[in-house]
Hints:
Elements: H1 2-14, E1 20-24, H2 28-40, E2 44-48, H3 54-60, E3 64-68, H4 76-84, E4 94-98, E5 114-117, H5 122-139, E6 148-150
Parallel strand pairs: 1-2, 1-3, 3-4, 4-5, 5-6
Amino acid sequence: MMENTAQFRQMNSLMPFPQRLMIIEDDLTLSEVLANIFTDHGYHCGLATDAPEISAIEAFKPDLIIIDYHLPKVNGGEVCAALKTNRLLAAVPIIVISAYSSIFLNLDGYDFDGFIEKPFSVAEIVTPVRNLLHQKQIQGKRANKMPFYLKPWQTDFH
């Protein structure tokens, strides 16, 4: 019996920690839905309904950040730019989400990794997150300086 316990502990120590997603979205319902979706996919999620202090994001140590462009006190692009100048967070991929596709044209200079227009389906948010995290793991840094833009075909969430 003791052998099995030791073997389980050894196998358990080889299992990777869940990747950490920071979701910054002022719509509490949407942020909770996103957290539930990503938790079901094996991620650990932190939520903020407005732009948190940079130190709080540093403390959470996210592997990827999803941020709404329209936040109560500041726009998500400005937060993105601040994160990309932070030495601890500069390599963290950031996906900006917005209900307004025209926002994409105004994001020049914010150095984000992807843009997803609301409303979006589960696959339309999970797939880019998975792909960016996979690229980050393979290369150990951001793989592509060119952000993607995903225009949803379905309207599951908004």
